From TrEMBL:
ATP binds at residues 12-19, 38, 127. This is tRNA-specific 2-thiouridylase MnmA. It comes from the Bacteria. Residues 98-100 are annotated as: Interaction with target base in tRNA. Residues 208-275 form the tRNA-specific 2-thiouridylase MnmA-like central domain. It catalyses: S-sulfanyl-L-cysteinyl-[protein] + uridine(34) in tRNA + AH2 + ATP = 2-thiouridine(34) in tRNA + L-cysteinyl-[protein] + A + AMP + diphosphate + H(+). It is an enzyme of class 2 (transferase).
Length: 366
């Protein structure tokens, strides 16, 4: 078999089924493939709850099955400095960050890529459900064909240099196909559950984990009229649109509809709640954003008619993006969006192409 021009690729083997099949597909395509297992969190700092040992065992089993060399590297220090410190700072500021987005830019496609290139590799590959289209004008990031698994949302911070050295072998596959290939290949992890949430929190309660790093600051839970309904243990434990975990029982003077978090009053340490999932305080037709990043390296002409997502797996929402100052922009949606959350990512698309995105500052209604 004739090998591809960029012949040596190192795959990030996480121990999961996706990265295992990504390695298998590259081998089938004629690449010289090696694996790399990244340890991104020091379990001693997290009471041993991140199952790195189990994941490593699964990665080793896949590498052995494929006859592939497996490198092991510890990026815990890089993760702490480049991702976790930002994670904590955002929560201190009352926002809800998305560490997966930053982890992709700083760890999987920076620390890992740099390490792979230092080993003499031509590029890296991961099990992300996304596609890359190389053209004369640069590299485009496209959605994965599986709408339910498309992960382009989490990759919007990548650069041309990072994408040009990357491959996503699963971009044209559906999840059921991936599991079937893993089963056919005899991978012991073919039925392993997909990882959810944030790895460094593991199976523990989020509040319990966060208390180790940020002191709890109890305060009042209030309704729109300022009536005190209960007490929260810290604004950082709540996000816009949240229903569960508020501890507000039935009230004789209320409609009986469930309560939802609508806003955070940082100055007075108050949590504002409203009744009903479609309460007007939860719906906004616009948002402001900062830290806008374009994948192709330059901003398109604005105002820009495109579509956007304010959360993973959301359908594309038609919108208009326009600048509002040197480092601020605003988005106006064709229809109202529920639970726009400061600190989360808003990611822009034109058809199948992911253009880039930014960090949500606030929702608004004209």
């Amino acid at each position: 078999m004739t090998r591809p021009v960029d012949t040596r690729v190192i795959v990030g083997l996480s121990g999961g089924v996706d990265s295992a099949v990504a390695a298998l597909r590259l081998l089938e395509q004629g690449f010289e493939v090696e694996g790399l297992f990244m340890k991104n969190w020091d379990e001693d700092d997290a009471d041993g709850h991140c199952p790195a040992a189990e994941d490593l065992a699964d990665a080793e089993a896949v590498a052995e099955r494929l006859g592939m060399k497996l490198h092991k590297v510890n990026f815990s220090a890089e993760y702490w400095d480049r991702v976790f410190e930002y994670f904590l700072a955002e929560y201190r500021a009352g926002r809800t960050p998305n560490p997966d987005v930053l982890c992709n830019r700083e760890i999987k496609f920076r620390a890992f890529l740099d390490y792979a290139l230092s080993l003499g590799a031509d590029g890296i590959a991961t099990g992300h459900y996304a596609r890359i289209d190389s053209t004369a004008g640069g590299v485009r990031l496209l959605k994965g064909v599986d709408d339910n698994k498309d992960q382009s949302y989490f990759l919007y911070l990548l650069t041309q240099a990072q994408l040009s050295h990357s491959r996503f072998p699963l971009g044209g596959m559906h999840k059921d196909e991936v599991r079937a290939r893993a089963r056919q290949a005899g991978f012991p992890n073919h039925a392993k559950k997909d990882s959810t949430g944030i790895c460094f929190i593991g199976e523990r309660r989020f509040n319990t984990f966060l208390k180790q790093y940020l002191p709890a600051q109890p305060g009042e839970i209030v309704d729109e009229a300022g009536h005190i309904l209960g007490e929260h243990q810290g604004l950082m434990y709540h996000t816009i649109g949240q229903r569960q975990g508020l501890g507000i029982g039935g009230r004789a003077d209320s409609s009986g509809a469930p309560w939802y978090v609508a806003d955070k009053d940082l100055e007075h340490n108050r949590l504002l709640v409203v009744q009903g999932g479609n309460h007007p305080r939860l719906l906004h037709t616009g948002l402001t954003l900062t830290r806008l990043h374009w994948i192709n390296g330059s901003a398109p002409q604005q105002p820009l008619a495109c579509s956007a997502r304010i959360r993973y797996r959301q359908s594309d929402q038609p919108c208009l993006l326009e600048p509002r100052g040197a480092q601020h922009w605003q988005v106006r949606f064709d229809s109202a969006q529920r639970a726009i959350t400061p600190g989360q990512a808003v990611v822009f698309y034109q058809g199948e192409e992911c253009l880039g995105g930014g960090t949500i500052e606030a929702g608004f209604n004209p």
